[in-house]
Amino acid sequence: MVSEVVPTPSRVESLAKSGIQVIPKEYVRPQEELNGIGNIFEEEKKEEGPQVPTINLKEIDSEDKEIREKCHQELKRAAMEWGVMHLVNHGISDELIDHVKVAGGTFFDLPVEEKEKYANDQPSGNVQGYGSKLANNGCGQLEWEDYFFHCVFPEDKRDLAIWPKTPADYILATSEYAKQIRNLATKIFAVLSIGLGLEEGRLEKEVGGMEDLMLQMKINYYPKCPQPELALGVEAHTDVSALTFILHNMVPGLQLFYEGNWVTAKCVPNSIIMHIGDTVEILSNGKYKSILHRGVVNKEKVRISWAIFCEPPKEKIILKPLPETVNEAEPPRFPPRTFAQHMAHKLFKKDDQDSTAEQKAFKKDDQDVVAERKVLRDDKQDAAAEHKIFKKDDQDVVAEHKVLKDVPAEESK
């Protein structure tokens, strides 16, 4: 007699509610990934050891120069040492944040069958909508989460047809929150620019400005897990974005890899967690840090987080260290890539296939950046020569872009 094979539910929520006591092997992580996973509630209470910094933004725009610069220095230090921080007094009202959380939570409270009406189609490249992680890593493990993913800013790039219709105020609350996060991002970019000795608008311009910087929201839903010591909600990664802003439902789960150990982030009331992403790390030539982090799960409480990723345009900009961040003692640490190529590199290690072309472009870019640095230093003496050199660099960037053109783009979160 052949026993009936029961198919594994396609959504983690359905799997978690099925009453299983042992998770399917697809969700069991390799042993080396499980270091530092304990009782997340006990981990979050620990007072000893390093703690994710909390930055008070109340005086970020203070007219008092000394007070304003103190705030800026604290933010800059956190970006350099950690690359992640809790932002408090960020200017976004508790009322609006509560509306966003209630709206997202209400959507995930719907029956799975209702949520499936918004399902995305990852194999075809449609990642917006309701979904679950499909394995794209070598060992094929899955993550213990479902999610809803969609573009929230600029308004003309949104597709409201795929936004949840229930609850009725989801669109209104999420749209307003996205606008306010976009304004907050401008302030953060300004502080980070000044921290590099640049004009305050420089970093924002380099990542696309108001027109091209795209904000993508991913609501992560982590169901209760019967064996949390064996699973991960999100595997260890760094964010590809420029900045990431995160809300959560005050259930711990975020861990940061800091100084060789996994540190559990505390739940700080009325805060927004902010990550420095790979994009800013690259532009700053590593002065600002994109920290490795992961999401762990538990068997007692559902965890929900709302992440907004601030992303540069996929093809329009070549990401590389800014000339002002480079000198002979600190040569470029990152090869030039478009954002799409960087995502492909992170996801599929495309550099293994294209390493020869990339290294050639990287070496050439190193020479160009040093030249740019010299020109910027001497620009007051020789403006005509500077114009000529920058014109040549524009041509070089086009050539570099052409060399790297064949790496496929892939959207992932």
Automatic annotation (TrEMBL):
Residues 210-312 form the Fe2OG dioxygenase domain. GO terms for molecular function: 2-oxoglutarate-dependent dioxygenase activity; L-ascorbic acid binding; metal ion binding. Pfam families: 2OG-FeII_Oxy (PF03171), DIOX_N (PF14226). One of its GO terms (biological process) is coumarin biosynthetic process. Its cofactor is Fe cation; L-ascorbate. Keywords: Dioxygenase, Flavonoid biosynthesis, Iron, Metal-binding, Oxidoreductase, Vitamin C. Belongs to the iron/ascorbate-dependent oxidoreductase family. PANTHER family: OXOGLUTARATE/IRON-DEPENDENT DIOXYGENASE (PTHR47991). This is Anthocyanin synthase. It comes from Solanum melongena (Eggplant). The lineage of its organism: Eukaryota, Viridiplantae, Streptophyta, Embryophyta, Tracheophyta.
